[in-house]
Amino acid sequence: MTRPYRFALIGCGFFAQNHLHAWSEIPEVELVAVCDIDPQRASAASASFGGRVYTNAAELFRNESLDFVDIATTAPTHRMMVELAAEHGVAAICQKPLAWEMDDAKAMVSACAAKGLPFMVHENFRFQYPMRRIKELLDSGAIGQPFFGRVSFRTAHDVYSAQPWLVDNERMIIIDVAVHLFDLARCFFGEPQTLFTDALRVNPIIAGEDVATVLMHMDKATCIVDASYETRSDHNTYPQTFVTLEGTEGTITLGPDYHLQVVSRGIVTDEDLVIPEHPWASLPWNGIQDSVYNIQRHWVDCLAAGTTPETSGLDTLTLLDITLGAYESFTTGSRYTVGSLS
Ligand code: NAD
Ligand code: 89V
After folding, report:
1. Cβ–Cβ < 8 Å for 100, 171
2. How far is the CA of 15 from the centre of ligand 2 (A)?
3. Pocket of ligand 1, beta carbon within 6 A
4. Which atom of ligand 2 is nearest to the CA of 177?
5. Which ligand ends up closest to the CA of 155?
6. Does residue 321 line the site of ligand 2, with CB under 6 A?
7. Residues of the domain holding 97
8. What is the pLDDT of residues 83-139, one digit of tens each?
9. Do 124 and 294 touch, CB atoms closer than 8 A?
10. Are 114 and 89 in contact (CB under 8 A)?
11. Probe ligand 1: pick from 20, 21, 36, max atoms within 8 Å of CB?
12. Close Cβ partners of 234 (under 8 Å, ≥ 6 residues apart)
């Protein structure tokens, strides 16, 4: 490496703090600017992590010479930001969900492809340490041919205090959280062919759905994805994801507090997974925070090697099709055939 990759972060809100901390652990990058329409947020980010302050993304791109931009705003601004980046020949990482609509997502992918620019979506759940372990076990054949899965995220954690914008979203837990679980299901089983959704709103103060169950049909497997923000259990496990995978030779279970059990050809192994530590990480977010570091590390490794990131923009078009298809299934009350919206 001759010089660090020069980058800017746009959107200095709640989750961007994790991005900023994780970037500070990656020596190959240099934060040259931060941008937020809220000047206080931009200034606070700059005071803690460095970089010139902008409140206007167009001005940022006009003034700075960047290798990539990290977009941590919410979905309505993603297309505008990615198109600006492409116009200026700048590679981009963009937070999930990539977009609310398929046309916007396609336009972003096309804009980057037209300029030959790397484009990745910050779809970090598959980069969680326990999920990497599960994927390794699956690929090693520990449970034979997987035929059933359940990927589950259930909590009563008050998500609305830190992310008040979720209250008014007409589409909520499927596009906010199940999107991560769909991606995990794809990572474990491959692409689904069809899916069926049931969903409802339990909390009357919000606009969208806060409980959802989606049945995904893969070539040789069935996978249930379920998410709830209204599940009151014995202890709060937010923001952990639970996984059960059954195969012809055994079962993998990731339960509360990262307890991993593997039953493989009659042998049972139990392990309490230890999430890799970062000086800035803290409970209960440490598993997610580590995944932010891992996905950002992956981006830099791909830039250096000239390879396509796992969660590229193009790959994420399928994930968005599944996610929007889940709403389509709920609305029509019938199975959605994956690919119909693409
Ligand atoms: P937030 O509202 O706290 O932060 C967004 C920031 O973007 C705000 O500070 C806002 O002022 C700024 N912004 C809005 N429009 C802008 C513009 N035109 N130019 C510059 N700045 C602008 O939101 P959040 O909760 O941090 O969520 C941000 C994104 O991160 C969402 O897409 C969300 O789904 C995603 N997210 C992902 C994870 C994950 O695990 N991958 C976790 C939480 C949030
Ligand atoms: O992805 C999100 O927006 C968060 C979560 C904690 C699920 O990662 O809500």
Report:
1. yes
2. 9
3. 10-16, 35-38, 41, 57, 72-75, 77, 95-96, 122, 124, 163, 165, 176, 288
4. 7
5. 2
6. no
7. 5-117
8. 999 999 999 999 999 999 999 999 999 999 999 999 999 999 999 999 999 999 999
9. yes
10. no
11. 36
12. none
